[in-house]
Design goal:
mainly beta, two-stranded antiparallel ribbon, 1 helix, 4-stranded mixed beta sheet, single chain, about 35% strand
Length: about 120
């Protein structure tokens, strides 16, 4: 086993890398967000998944305000080192629309169908 070096990741021109969050127990894809080098390091150090908010230009620790947290179970890097997969224990909904997953819209034959309703509090 070798030590992980975040500088080996391939970040885009804005210094960001896409991060997919997946439920560690069910394998359900929950959401996609962006990380920068510092948020990668914070995630690995704290075990609390930390993203980079492009709109606020600030760190975004999932669940910090909503209570819908993501506890890191495993951190994976894809073969090109230009995408991240975080396997998480998700507490509450992952999506800001209060749904379990951000991927709740199916497109078939050019029509959209919502697959899940918002979760109840």
């Amino acid at each position: 086993m070798m030590a992980f070096d975040p500088t080996t990741l391939t970040f885009n021109d804005q210094g960001l890398i896409p991060a997919i969050a997946q439920d560690a127990k069910t394998s359900e894809v929950l959401m996609m967000a962006w990380m920068n080098a510092a948020s990668v390091e914070k995630t690995l150090e704290t075990g609390r998944v930390t993203y980079w908010s492009r709109s606020r230009q600030a760190f975004w620790i999932k669940g910090e305000t909503s209570g819908h947290t993501q506890e890191l179970v495993e951190f994976r890097v894809d073969c090109d080192r230009d995408a991240i997969l975080v396997l998480v224990n998700q507490i509450g909904p992952a999506c800001h629309t209060n749904r379990r997953s951000c991927f709740y819209t199916a497109v078939t034959n050019e029509a959209e169908t919502e697959l899940m309703a918002p979760m109840e509090d």
